[in-house]
């Protein structure tokens, strides 16, 4: 019984602080300590949310933003992964490309926004390009690091057992690099939303960022706050997906799947 | 389930006599020749160990000469232990026999054929088990199944896991096994391909004393059952005497002693055992004294 209570507590605990903050916020707003023009109360934000949900604006904005984010992630992620893979497996390729990649990596990609608008206008391509660029490097670096840090003893073992070329990479190198690749994925999901928010706020004609900027024009602060909260929720959602992938693909790993308590002495 | 293993380890199976040595011919087509059940395919190959011949083998890394004109011949099915202090070149010698490194001088022959790289008939057990953590115990053993036999890989792997007493852990991840269990999985992986030459690079060095003895008995039993040629590198003289037909001492890159252990198997730690152990240890220590204080010990 006590254990049951403790487990329920464990589920409840992460939400204690967010719920407390929201409650405090509502109370301060109700007593007029936070002026309406500075920050609307949570109830007002919720009402705005229901309104936008009912007229379809919200769903449309989320859909547009999600498509941009995922398209950019798919393009940037696959380029970064392929590049990391090639550089990790072929030293000659790494010598050829790595220093170039490092130079590009150190340019803050958001600094390219003026140039990107000049190239692509404010259409979809500009945003997808920026997201892809932001996502590429965390995945590239972590893939490369993962491949380089695979235990050489395991590779030697693979060679002794007649694994070479493609088979060696599929059975030994890639699974060994996978934990590191997934760290890259989690990093880049953060970059994905960050890039998209900035790009949509500066230049867009649809999407969550556009909705927020538009609402600011009409001083609908409840909608602005709603959009900010949406980003927080979407970020949490993508983190949950990344964690799910880790659980699924790394179930052999003592940190993710295996219960170390089942270790038995021989 | 584990009781079968314990019985096999601790119950005296001296009744099993060494298989007769038959002259070995190089198998032209692997896997062809012996037809029978899966069990026979890798258990019933007794007497098919590879012979190894080293002719004036040298190995140098840059400036340092690790092995100097080593001459050694290992008969088919023989169990040879190579002992020596750390850094004497014994592990290098094993890597040369395995084909992982190439000698800088001299020639190595496996079954009268010069060694050229890694061979599917040669398997190595390393000091660490080197299991793939993302594969289950059974799938790790499957890696050792030669490709031409891949069809029944799981069944074969399972049968060998039974021989090392770990069939009930087949679906576990390696990370939940103990050190000794991991080495038993590595042994199963090495055996499943029915190697003719099995090389041990201090595979028991990291285990505790009781697990070591258990593993020594297991290795000896499987060696007698399968009939492969075994080369064991170790710094533990008593382990060498317990397991080997011959103990070879490597010192400063040369063979300093080549001693046949004439004790009956399975070996008991009696006075004969102690005699061989002392003989080898004294030889190791004597060279040390020669080296450090040559003038003080005149008799």
Q: What features would you describe in this structure?
A:
The complex is a heterodimer of chains A (266) and B (299). In chain A, 77% of the residues lie in helices and 0% in strands. Chain A has 266 residues and is mostly helical. Chain A has one domain (41-233): Orthogonal Bundle (MetI-like fold). In chain A, helix 4 (57-89) packs across helix 5 (91-105), helix 7 (124-148) packs antiparallel against helix 9 (166-202) and helix 9 (166-202) packs antiparallel against helix 11. The longest helix of chain A is centred in the last third of the chain and has 37 residues, at 166-202. Chain A is flat and about 75 Å long. Chain B has 299 residues and is an alpha/beta fold. Chain B has one domain: P-loop containing nucleotide triphosphate hydrolases (Rossmann fold). In chain B, the strands form two sheets. Chain B has a six-stranded mixed β-sheet, with helices on both faces. In chain B, strands 2-1-4-5 form a four-stranded antiparallel β-sheet, covered by helices on one side. In chain B, a hairpin with a 2-residue loop joins strand 4 and strand 5. Chain B is globular. Chains A and B meet through helix 8 and helix 9 of A and helix 6 of B.
Summarize this, please?
The complex is a heterodimer of chains A (266) and B (299). Chain A is an all-alpha fold and 266 residues long. Chain A has helices spanning 2-12, 16-30, 42-54, 57-89, 91-105, 113-120, 124-148, 152-160, 166-202, 208-217, 221-249.
